[in-house]
Amino acid sequence: MRVLARVGVGPLCSAARAVIPCFWRGKYFSSGREPAENQVTPMLRHLVYKIKATGPITVAEYMKEVLTNPAKGYYVYRDMLGEKGDFITSPEISQIFGELLGIWFISEWMATGKNAAFQLVELGPGRGTLSGDILRVFSQLGSVLKNCDISIHLVEVSEKLSEIQALTLTEEKVPLERNPGSPAYMKGVTKSGIPISWYRDLQDVPKGYSFYLAHEFFDVLPVHKFQKTPQGWREVFIDIDPQASDKLRFVLAPCVTPAEVFIQSDETRDHVEVCPEAGVIIQELSQRIALTGGAALIADYGHDGTKTDTFRGFCGHKLHDVLIAPGTADLTADVDFSYLRRMAEGKVASLGPIKQQTFLKNMGIDVRLKVLADKSDEPSRQQLLQGYDMLMNPKKMGERFHFFALLPHQRLHGGSHPMNACQSKPSPSPVAGFGELAWR
Ligand SMILES: C[S@@+](CC[C@H](N)C(=O)[O-])C[C@H]1O[C@@H](n2cnc3c(N)ncnc32)[C@H](O)[C@@H]1O
């Protein structure tokens, strides 16, 4: 594996994208970090005690414990992203990804009347790379955003990652204000002088005109799994293997469980994954957007209500058995965008899911690539091209990842802008990314 150098290309250039962009949660390479096969981890011990005390647990409870348990959760105390970690994400692959998303938010802000202030709220910001790239675009387009009062709000449960985000994003001369007991557990000022705050829950983020961003966030939220049987739907649980007291196994519930209400009555698949936590977050986002305006942009791998068994683990850039050495590997399930759309309950309009390749193309990735490549030396140019290929190639991330947006109804159907005297209806401008980019 080759570690790539910093790309010195133009004013929008960011910090180095660290790796040859080959490792993402869908492609399996070795990083040298081997999965801890058959290891009795502290998390496994905790789960075995729990199951012995209260019986088998749902897959959702298992995912929640393994990923975000405050004492031992996979996400809580480690940096799992990048070359030495377990997977890589689009913002870590190329600066262009975040730049185009920054332009998307500015475009929506302009299309909806250039509000005097907005909050940028990122859910699950990883290393803070994506927000960093977006903030750089905001600085570069300072003349467009001038007089707009911007604040940044990060929703992050991981202590370790929030520290890395602060390092990436904040001005070190301004000390961080830490207040572990308060909803905003950390506050600071970004390198470009914008107030930034951290929360553990979206509910704690102040309400107000906001742009919400969730990249590879919904796929780590806990899913319930169900199997169709001759007796009807049965939920999948996790139990201790009777043959080995330090091993776990999947079992089917003997009777109906409460989570079955989440299955649609006309469901035709024989195996279904449902993520109620995603539903709650979408409802909260929808209510906020309907009430105070703004938009949500969600990017993740997923499907539109068609896939069945997608629950899987990643460790050291390899697929990992989800029940082995819990707490040492990432757990994930594809996002069901049809469920997210249903959960918006008509409060807001939704667009997508559309393929990452299409969204980025519509956002002008080719133009941006050319600008950067023309200013680069040969190694940096190769690096940019590799990053582009990883993001856009249908066999890599181009078709596997999708973009989905929530917008106020009036944004799509008109009503927020003064009417053109010649028209009987207002004509809202198209939403960037979801249609071809019109250069004006
Ligand atoms: C797969 S990583 C994606 C990171 C980043 N968005 C990226 O694309 O590089 C998931 C992120 O969500 C955070 N996370 C996981 N569960 C969460 C939860 N329930 N609430 C808030 N953040 C969570 C993780 O700590 C991590 O920052």
UniProtKB/TrEMBL annotation:
Location(s) in or outside the cell: Mitochondrion
Q: Which domain of life is it from?
A: Eukaryota
Asked whether the keyword Ion transport is assigned, the reply is no
Among InterPro entries, the record links this protein to:
NDUFAF7, NDUFAF7_sf, SAM-dependent_MTases_sf
SUPFAM superfamilies in UniProt: S-adenosyl-L-methionine-dependent methyltransferases (SSF53335)
Q: Which GO terms describe its biological process?
A: methylation; mitochondrial respiratory chain complex I assembly
Which GO terms label this protein's molecular function in UniProt?
enzyme binding; protein-arginine omega-N symmetric methyltransferase activity
Q: Which Pfam families does the entry link to?
A: Methyltransf_28
* CC annotations in GO: mitochondrion
Enzyme Commission number: 2.1.1.320
What does the function comment of this entry state?
A: Arginine methyltransferase involved in the assembly or stability of mitochondrial NADH:ubiquinone oxidoreductase complex (complex I). Acts by mediating symmetric dimethylation of 'Arg-118' of NDUFS2 after it assembles into the complex I, stabilizing the early intermediate complex.
Identify its protein family. Answer: Belongs to the NDUFAF7 family.
Protein's name according to its UniProt entry: Protein arginine methyltransferase NDUFAF7
- Say which species the protein is native to: Panthera leo (Lion)
Q: Which gene encodes it?
A: NDUFAF7
